[in-house]
Amino acid sequence: MGNKSLSKHSTCLVFSILLNFLLFGYNLYFSTVDDGGLSWSRGAAEEAEAVAAISCSGHGRAYLDGVTSGDLPVCECNTCYGGRDCSKFSPSCSADVDSGNPLFLEPYWRQRAAASALVVSGWHRMGYSFPDGTNISPELERHIRQLHAVVGNAVTEGRFIVFGAGSTQLLNAAVHALSPGGGGVAAGVVATAPFYPIYELQTEYFASVDFQYQGDTSLWIAGGNSSSTIIEFVTSPNNPDGKLNEAVLKGPNFKAIYDRAYYWPHFTPIPAADDGELKIFTLSKLTGHAGSRFGWAIVKDEDVYNKMLMHMQLNTMGVSRDTQLRALKLLKTIMAEGGGRTIFDFGYQTMKSRWEKLRKVVSVSKRFSLQDVSSHYCVFSGRVRESSPAYGWLKCEREEESDCYGVLKAAGIIGRGGSVFYATDRNVRLSLIKTRDDFDLLVDKLQKLVSAEQDEEEGGGDGNGIEQHVANVTEYQPLRRRM
Amino acid sequence: MGNKSLSKHSTCLVFSILLNFLLFGYNLYFSTVDDGGLSWSRGAAEEAEAVAAISCSGHGRAYLDGVTSGDLPVCECNTCYGGRDCSKFSPSCSADVDSGNPLFLEPYWRQRAAASALVVSGWHRMGYSFPDGTNISPELERHIRQLHAVVGNAVTEGRFIVFGAGSTQLLNAAVHALSPGGGGVAAGVVATAPFYPIYELQTEYFASVDFQYQGDTSLWIAGGNSSSTIIEFVTSPNNPDGKLNEAVLKGPNFKAIYDRAYYWPHFTPIPAADDGELKIFTLSKLTGHAGSRFGWAIVKDEDVYNKMLMHMQLNTMGVSRDTQLRALKLLKTIMAEGGGRTIFDFGYQTMKSRWEKLRKVVSVSKRFSLQDVSSHYCVFSGRVRESSPAYGWLKCEREEESDCYGVLKAAGIIGRGGSVFYATDRNVRLSLIKTRDDFDLLVDKLQKLVSAEQDEEEGGGDGNGIEQHVANVTEYQPLRRRM
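Predict the joint structure of the above. Result:
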């Protein structure tokens, strides 16, 4: 029995020792190999994950470059939320639907944390140029062409592509490139109201001898033709009202710059690929990365293309290579999933749902109305679809309420007055592309306003207590910080 | 004996089983915790490390956004190197020391891979603004002020800081801001030859009614005073010759823009902190990240500051938030090590060593000479030091060799001709801040040229076979890619 017991024990012992060796070996191997997938990037990855793990109650977020408290950055809260973790709501706070900050797409990127993460090495593209001598990433350009092919919103074959710091830089580059210059007659620059005000502000700011802002397009229609060059800005879909505008001036001296910032399935059915001479796109309203300042122009004429490249070179020496790397990662993420369709499904569903809620509230009102939106066949979705524009273009229908911005402001809704867009202040632009918190608060305040409509109608709305309308155009108004 | 043996075996078995439990526990714990430091960032980190591990023989590098072959990006080789891993040297290839590509600092960042790595989340700063409503990172601004305090090259207390896409964007913003505008007399813009050509090219390109390029500063010295505003560009240290220039025009209507791109201990002793009205710095020649396009201006006057902010807003809506994040990481890396001194030690040692080699070669020549560089007390290093400028400003001393660019070109050295800097072509700028490969090849080719000097002198150099000098200004000349 002693021997039998000893033999059993020996077997167990041998087995156990073998197991020990195996486990030791496993530890040894994986301490160098599994972990060893990573060496120099581990610290940065840990730092980023620690920041991403900071809880801001779903009403804010912390960033790696945020102002710190202790070792970690503090939460940056959505409007009307505050406190250390953004959990404190201020009910009396106004719904801020002024700017076109495209945070409605933030949840899409949070859900794709792994796919969209990017590690930048300390020595990434320190130099000026890519191997072909340009400052335009060939890989990024290739992905942009692929994306347009998937969406069907722009012809890129046989066209040149220029990168800019958002569409902003490209707008003025295009005006420069389309102006004859060389001491001839200055080109005229026009747009049709209501329009995105930066066209006029930018053109006037640069005060070039080669071009000059010339007012509304309508002034030139009567004239029929022009002996000097007239450059027409066409925003399609339009900012603020979402209409699929077309150039109205036609003739040899009329040139159109198509601002296609919103020509994505989030906001509009895509009737056809833009086949025009010069069209400008931006990451801001496509992926929601307004802060990255990345845009591109698709140009037919080689001479115009070369002039725009010259502009980029003399103005900023091209777009930051870091920004180009980031844009590439974002487009890769989009394209890798569902052949590039999921971001548009997400964007469209979000916008459609917001429009349904907004329409429902406004539909019972006689005091307020929203713009009509058309339905079109969409080449991307393969069916007829309604538009879901980035902005509500709200109108105050009561004759005496000509200051619609003021009417809403008094009710705790900060929109952007129509006069900012060279329309009247009977309209107000309501941004529907900000955070869910901003949108929910807008619907809530609007609901209260509409609910009170019957009572108000008895007394007649006189705009009492309405503050002076001050155009607050945060997309382009510089805000400064005192030291 | 059986029982004794059994007891020994039992003890071993118990011990072994305990060890098994311990090892199991260890594995279980660290499979979730050690590895678990990382979740969403792991894939991006692995991808970046795989790219960084691509061997390019020390004569090139692969980037995450490089053109791929198979799954991985291909090596981008230094000039004169080629092949899959950049190991093939072409001896007949010319030394290209034309551009100011600051790759001499690349080894510094490779040595600090972990400290300088950055992980960007998919949702990083999608919106337009920082919490204070500006588009300027307060953390980055704070680090910039700290860095100047360490180096002692600029007064920042009580000054405003504006960010731009490299110094390039800030140069024109400053001209705009210093011009009176408003339909008055256009301001004149001047610079003293030899000077960085973008001042003239940019000013003329923008063709503003508010300012005009007016030629060399010397034309205005005789006049003494001016009734209209004259804006003087002062590059100090100067590009191309490294001199510590001062503004030459003094008076109420004269305004100076100090371009301080090279005012760092890599290139010059720092005699004193610049206390002037408007000075412009750039990351390009400080950390070597020219591709990031990040610069800043330090401004005394609040009105000028506000005008420059307006320029940034209407031109590009500020600097990419991705670029700002990257710049912050780079400055944090610098500041965390040796109180911010090691990058300057590295940069200065590299430049000093290059100058010693260059001087040694040229010192035995009568045909070529280099600019004199002065010594100054340096507040940063606390001692008298010689300059080690970014560029050699080589002169052809033989009367008949007035096309010095051509003389060098024929000998396999591509510099930048003096006429590009509005000097004569008797001088050529040689960039000393490119890769070590570029520098070594320059010294090699120059050595051969000097060695052959005696033989050549007998026959008399007539510039035979010299190609036509075509100014090749790659820092700002747009290079386009055909589709």
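DSSP finds 15 helices and 22 strands in chain B.
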